[in-house]
Q: What sequence folds into this?
């Protein structure tokens, strides 16, 4: 029916509707699919406009800026196409902190992602069956995710403080710590265990724990929702076959949960990789926690070097895309099969 | 023989995990509630009491004080920190963001869920790609653009940025709800002579009200809690500070006692937590519906 040539005259004669509503010359009556197409585009345009103006264009401009020498003071009068060069990238790659900061970011992101999803999974399994007060606990457990980051970061900062923090005070009372531990400003903490000495990156571990604590509710929410959609009959069948609890989890529940867990890992990885405020508020990027987003912010606000900041941010985005590309290449299919 | 062994293993696991489960539940309750209890606790005592006994997990009646809250809320002219003003700024930005986001996301999500148009598959991917780029990357050009059009250090500019940050998730949440509304309802409305816009307004929106509220709540939370863009855009202008920014700046002041800081944290947290508890079920269902399909 859509094959009628544009403005087919014989059709216009026989179609009563077109006599009530004379179409502009050369315009064929719209088919349902064309109308849907038009309406769809029209309905999507406000959203598209906002994203275009506030996201796509700025990103495009950042790409241009990354190849130009641009300080914040002279950027106002600058044209779009200045002198192109790779200086900013050379500067970023050569600077001492870049590779270590990338490594820190990866550790931070991987640790926080795995930790928060694992804790969320444990929480969802524990709260799966109803018990008295479950609804209340479920709501309370979402608090770290819902509460403003500035507020919770300060609570942690105060609680972990070596001078007036509750954690160090109780640590001395219960575990006999000799000296207060500065959790957020110790780069390497020496641990003696079974006669062996380890140096652990304490500040980095602390921000990872913070991130796990703050985002496990997110994983918990999604995994619990998926758990409750698993049909009981599957588990009953396994039970009849004599499967123990761990076997039922391993062979029945886990395959069902795998797609949502994989999705959560990807989402959390992207979010944490670009995370700025948590680390900035807790440590300011000091003591071995100089994650990349905080470094970009420092380039911007301490040196007003827009070009270098843009180059650094762009490098990050590229690293993230490569990592995601690898992930989907090796695991994407598997996840889809299991879905 | 083997059968018996299997049974005991099953029984052992049953019992072991039965007990472990309660340990996990108590542990989770403690780690989520104690930090917030600690926050409220510290905000209600004078700083001397905290320094004297940092490990105490309660307040004695003689220490109990509201002076920290007075200090935080009083206007700067009266020697306080002016948080009432910040609360008002945050409320304006957040509510503005909610309204604008819904205005942009409702038609968008309707189109994605109902209409087959050119590129309808790519739309969600495009919007999700927004998250691939660090917010710090966006901040630079936005800062310059806004300076040019005179929107920098204005609450309106901040709200526009928040809209772009929240629209993708809003579309996702709304879409998941809209696809559950049967198409036959719309067809009936069309037969009764409704245009598509009328159908959306008179039929779809009332049906989608719970989802709209959940999405609005989520957007409000994001906007209320946001920190980076507020820091970049508004830091120079204390009259425009949001509560998050005000609190962060307050912590940089050396002479401000930690207990006052905690009072500020409570003030910042309360509105969002109250809203959340009022509509918890709505929000969680709105967020996770369709999670099993993804």
A:
């Amino acid at each position: 029916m859509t094959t009628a040539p544009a403005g087919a005259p014989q059709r216009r004669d026989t179609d009563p509707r077109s006599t009530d509503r004379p179409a502009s010359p050369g315009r064929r009556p719209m088919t349902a699919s064309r109308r849907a197409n038009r309406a769809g585009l029209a309905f999507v345009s406000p959203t598209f406009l906002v994203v275009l103006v506030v996201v796509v264009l700025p990103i495009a401009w950042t790409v241009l800026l990354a190849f130009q020498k641009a300080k914040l003071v002279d950027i106002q009068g600058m044209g779009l196409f200045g002198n192109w060069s790779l200086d900013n990238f050379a500067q970023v790659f050569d600077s001492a902190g870049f590779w270590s900061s990338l490594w820190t970011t990866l550790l931070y992101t991987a640790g926080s992602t795995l930790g928060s999803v694992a804790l969320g999974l444990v929480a969802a399994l524990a709260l799966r069956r109803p018990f008295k007060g479950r609804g209340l606990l479920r709501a309370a457990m979402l608090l770290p995710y819902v509460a403003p980051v500035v507020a919770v970061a300060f609570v942690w900062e105060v609680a972990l403080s070596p001078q007036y923090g509750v954690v160090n005070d109780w640590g001395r009372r219960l575990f006999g710590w000799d000296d207060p531990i500065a959790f957020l400003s110790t780069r390497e903490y020496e641990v003696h265990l079974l006669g062996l000495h380890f140096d652990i990156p304490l500040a980095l571990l602390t921000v990872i724990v913070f991130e796990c604590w703050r985002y496990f509710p997110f994983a918990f929410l999604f995994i619990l929702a998926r758990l409750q959609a698993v049909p009981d009959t599957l588990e009953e069948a396994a039970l009849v076959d004599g499967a123990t609890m761990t076997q039922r989890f391993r062979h029945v529940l886990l395959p069902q949960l795998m797609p949502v867990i994989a999705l959560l890992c990807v989402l959390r990885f992207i979010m944490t990789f670009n995370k700025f405020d948590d680390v900035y508020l807790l440590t300011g990027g000091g003591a071995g926690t100089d994650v990349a987003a905080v470094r970009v912010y420092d380039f911007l606000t301490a040196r007003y070097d827009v070009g270098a900041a843009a180059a650094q941010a762009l490098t990050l985005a590229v690293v993230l895309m490569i990592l995601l590309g690898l992930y989907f290449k090796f695991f994407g299919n598997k996840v889809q099969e299991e879905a | 023989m083997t059968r018996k062994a299997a049974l005991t293993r099953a029984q052992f696991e049953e019992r072991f995990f039965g007990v472990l489960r309660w340990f996990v539940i108590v542990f989770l309750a403690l780690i989520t509630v104690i930090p917030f209890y600690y926050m409220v606790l510290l905000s209600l005592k004078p700083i001397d009491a905290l320094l004297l006994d940092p490990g105490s997990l309660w307040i004695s009646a003689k220490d109990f004080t509201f002076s920290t809250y007075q200090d935080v809320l009083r206007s700067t002219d009266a020697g306080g920190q002016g948080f009432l003003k910040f609360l008002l700024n945050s409320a304006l930005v957040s509510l503005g963001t909610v309204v604008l986001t819904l205005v942009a996301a409702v038609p968008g999500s309707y189109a994605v869920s109902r209409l087959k148009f050119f590129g309808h598959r790519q739309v969600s991917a495009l919007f999700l790609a927004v998250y691939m780029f660090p917010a710090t990357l966006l901040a630079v050009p936005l800062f310059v653009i806004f300076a040019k059009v005179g929107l920098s250090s204005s609450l309106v500019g901040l709200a526009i940025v928040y809209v772009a940050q929240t629209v993708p998730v809003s579309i996702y949440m709304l879409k998941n709800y809209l696809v559950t509304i049967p198409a036959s309802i719309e067809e009936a409305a069309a037969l009764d002579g409704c245009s598509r816009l009328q159908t959306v307004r008179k039929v779809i929106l009332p049906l989608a009200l719970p989802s709209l509220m959940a999405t609005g709540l989520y957007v409000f939370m994001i906007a209320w809690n946001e920190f980076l863009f507020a820091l970049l855009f508004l830091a120079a202008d204390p009259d425009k500070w949001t509560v998050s920014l005000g609190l962060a700046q307050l912590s940089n002041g050396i002479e401000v006692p930690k207990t006052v800081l905690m009072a500020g944290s409570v003030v910042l947290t309360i509105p969002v937590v109250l809203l959340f508890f009022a509509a918890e079920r709505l929000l969680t269902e709105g967020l996770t519906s369709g999670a099993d399909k993804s």
Q: What stands out?
A: Chain A touches chain B through 98 residues (CB under 8 Å). The domain at 98-289 of chain A is CATH 1.10.3720.10 (MetI-like fold). The longest helix of chain A spans residues 32-66. The longest strand of chain A covers residues 189-193.
